[in-house]
Amino acid sequence: MPALTPLQISAIDAAHLWHPYSTIGAEAVPPVVAVGARGAWLTLIRDGESIDALDAMSSWWTAIHGHGHPVLDAALTKQLSTMNHVMFGGLTHEPAARLAQLLVDITPAALQTVFFCDSGSVSVEVAVKMALQYWRSRGQPGKTRLMTWRGGYHGDTFTPMSICDPDGGMHKLWADVLAQQVFAPQVPRDYDPGYSAAFEAQLAEHAGELAAVVVEPVVQGAGGMRFHDPRYLVDLRDICDRHGVLLIFDEIATGFGRTGELFAADHVEVSPDIMCVGKALTGGYLSLAATLCTTDVAHRISSAGPLLHGPPSWPTRWPARCRWPASSCCCGTTGERR
């Protein structure tokens, strides 16, 4: 099949493709055609001319090692020549086992169980499902709500949208159909014990109905790039323990070195009950995320039955999806960056 020219690509795009966060039709802003990527640079075609552009956004925060990294390319080639796809129900394979062990080794110590997911949003969905099933297994089905800080962003599917900022966030359009969660005021940049005390007082009013507190640790990313003192994470851990509420860290954007530590939780050595990782996990090669939880959460859920999640498009059915992240994590932890 002959390659399409940039003009042909643009014509088909205009006729049939709907891009993220965009309109379609005559008023739509036409996207730039990308024809190559290497290292930190993208090769684009604009007005018929080839230009090199710095991928300063790391392709939506995923390509942390640059494009075309030789270690990741080699991992792809090796895995595709061995086994490209098997179902994960009732089967397992080496790439999944290696990646699970690696994630357990590098994340906070209490997190011992790994559930692989399709994307960051799905990872948050699974984290919330874990929290809800955990409390149902403990005979407390009324604990169904979530609490979070204002100003956050957790994804574009419906449960994550319900804990994005309810006023200034991109999902306020759906406010009347989303689950009603509990929102604390915006977390300050500098540490203020008074803020934590007020947060605890608000949480205490709802503790009987709260399944979990969900936050982006250290940096609230897509919701506004706001930073906060890591000591708030210590306070959250203590508050959740005192009131019988699970703590979920959404490290989709902050994980794998983006805050100066491998994970934002590492700044103060806090272990959440559940943690979401993604984006940089595969180095930008494929969509894959993971939801990790403590042994207590996993065993408590399992004591009452299986975790009720298993999409047919299972991420680990493609062993390559697991081979890449393992190689990507090794690049990140050994300094093999480009």
Entry keywords:
single chain; 338 residues; alpha/beta; Aspartate Aminotransferase, domain 2; three-stranded antiparallel sheet
Classify the beta-strand content into a percent band.
15-25%
Main beta sheet: strand number and arrangement?
Answer: 7 strands, mixed
Main sheet strand line-up: 4-12-11-10-7-5-6
Order of helices and strands: HEEEHHHEHEHEHEEEHEEEHH
CATH architecture verdict of the largest domain:
3-Layer(aba) Sandwich
Describe the global form: globular
Number of domains: 2
> Could you state the CATH homologous superfamily of the largest domain?
Type I PLP-dependent aspartate aminotransferase-like (Major domain)
Count every helix, treating DSSP H or I runs of 4 or more residues as helices.
10
Uncertain segments are none
* CATH fold type of the largest domain: Aspartate Aminotransferase, domain 2
Query: What's the total count of β strands?
Result: 12
- What number is the mean pLDDT? 90
Describe the fold and architecture:
- The protein is of the alpha/beta class and 338 residues long.
- The chain has two domains: 6-58, no CATH class; 70-334, 3-Layer(aba) Sandwich (Aspartate Aminotransferase, domain 2).
- Helix content is 34%, strand content 17%.
- It contains ten helices and twelve strands.
- The chain has helices at 6-16, 58-61, 70-80, 94-106, 120-137, 158-162, 193-206, 231-243, 295-303, 319-334, and strands at 33-38, 41-46, 49-54, 111-117, 145-149, 182-184, 210-215, 219-220, 226-227, 246-250, 274-277, 289-294.
- Helix 3 runs antiparallel to helix 10, helix 4 (94-106) runs parallel beside helix 10 and helix 5 packs across helix 9 (295-303).
- The two termini are 33 Å apart.
- It is an enzyme of class 2 (transferase).
- Pathway: Cofactor biosynthesis; biotin biosynthesis; 7,8-diaminononanoate from 8-amino-7-oxononanoate (SAM route): step 1/1.
- This is adenosylmethionine--8-amino-7-oxononanoate transaminase.
